[in-house]
Amino acid sequence: MAGPLSHIRVLDLSRVLAGPWAAQNLADLGAEVIKIERPGVGDDTRGWGPPWMKDGSGKDSTESAYFLSVNRNKKSVTLDLSKPEGQAIARELAQKSQVLIENYKLGTLARYGLSYEELKKTNPGLIYCSVTGFGQDGPYAPRPGYDFIFQGMGGLMSITGERDGQPGAGPQKVGIAITDVLTGMYASVAILAAITHRERTGQGQYIDAALLDTMVAFNANQIVSYFCSDKIPIRWGNAHPQVVPYEVFPTTDGHLILAIGNDGQFERFCQAAGAAALAQEVRFKTMSQRIIHRGELIPLIAERMRTRSKREWIEILEAASVPCGPINNMQEVFEDPQVQHRKLRVDMPHPLGGVAPLVASPLRLSETPVEYRLAPPMLGQHNEEVLKDLLGKSADELVRLKAHGIV
C-alpha cells in the first residue's frame, strides 16, 4: 500500500540536521523527496566522519554515519544554486513540487529568485518551509545559529546539569542536537497541517520555523511554572524537585534509575530492598517528608543500591512493581529485548554494497505504515532519473550541465 504522502513531492534544499530531519519524516510517510546538494561536495554532513559506513568489502566508505542517520528515502540531485542555470532548474523542480524545505541564511534564496514570494507566482499551492536559527524577523534574524547556542539561549542548559553544591555542578547541554531534531519535528507537523489546508483549498502557505522558538516552546512546563511563581527554575541534575527518590543510583556494575512517584511505591521499594523499617520512619513515610529530608534519605538508599548489580535490582524491583530502569549505552539499547521486538534497527542495502545501519522511524500507522524504500543516497545518485524523467532534460543536455558544473 502506498504511503499516506505518496502523492506529495518535496523539494529539499536543506542540509545538516533540522531540515533534513523534517524531510526524512515526510519521506518515511511516502513522499518523494528530492534532495538538492552542491556538486562535488553535497550536504555538509557527508564529510562529518569518521565514523563511516562499511562498504561491501567491509572497508570504510565515503558515506558518513551522520549523513546516513537523517537522509533515507530521498533522491540526491546535485545543483549549483549560485549559478543562474542552476537556479532555473530549481525553479522548474519547485513548479512540480507541493512542498519546499530550505534552511539558507536569511535573504539568500531571494537573491537566487527562489523566495516564496517568487515561486508562488507560478505555483500558488506551494508549501514553503524555511528553517532558520532566529526566524524571519526580529533583531537577530540575520544571525546564524547552532543547536548548542539555542540550548543555552532558550533556557534548557539553565535546568540541565548537576545542581549547585554537588561535584561537577554547572550547566550542561543535552548529548544530541535536540534543538535541531525538535525543530525538524515541529516543521513536519506544520507541513502536514499545511498539506491538509492545501488539499481543502488549493492554497499553499509559508512556514517560518525557528530553532530559538522551538527551544523556548520545549521548555514550556518550566517556563509556565516560572510565570506562575516568579521563581526561576534551577538545575537538579538527575534528581526531581518534587519527587523523592527520583534519581540515579550506582550499583555494583553501573547505574540504575529509581522513579518512585508515590508512598505505596516507596514502601514496596523498602520491602524489596530489605529495608522495610525505612518506610515507617516519620521523616520518610510521606512524599512531603521525603522532600524535606532528601539529604538524609538519598545516602541511605545509595548505600543499599551499591550491594547488587543493576540487572539484579531490576528483577527485584520490577517484581515488586517499583518503577526503575537501566542507563544503557548504545550497544545495550539494541541488546534490549523490547528494542529488538520493536525492530528499532533497520539495515538497508546500499549502492556501495553492504548495508546502511539505521534507526527505525517511531511513526507506527496501522493502515499506511512507514516504508524503507531508498537507502541514504550517494551524491548525485538520482541526477539522471530526476532531470531526465521529471524535467525532460535530454542526455546531451545532462552532459553539458555536468561539464559546466551546474550538476
Can you walk through the features of this model?
The structure is a single chain. This protein is α/β, with parallel strands linked by helices. The protein is 36% helix and 16% strand. The chain contains 17 helices and 13 strands. The chain has helices spanning 18-28, 65-68, 84-95, 108-111, 116-119, 147-153, 178-201, 211-218, 220-229, 263-272, 287-292, 294-305, 310-319, 330-333, 337-341, 383-390, 395-403; strands at 9-13, 32-37, 52-54, 60-64, 74-78, 99-102, 127-132, 205-210, 246-251, 254-259, 324-326, 345-349, 355-359. The strands form four sheets. The protein has a six-stranded parallel β-sheet with strand order 5-2-1-6-7-8, sandwiched between helices. α1 crosses α7 (178-201) and α7 crosses α8. The longest helix is centred in the middle third of the chain and has 24 residues, at 178-201. 34% of the residues are buried.
Task: Based on the model shown, name its key terms.
single chain, 407 residues, alpha/beta, Rossmann fold, formyl-coa transferase, domain 3, 2 domains, 6-stranded parallel beta sheet, 3-stranded antiparallel beta sheet, elongated
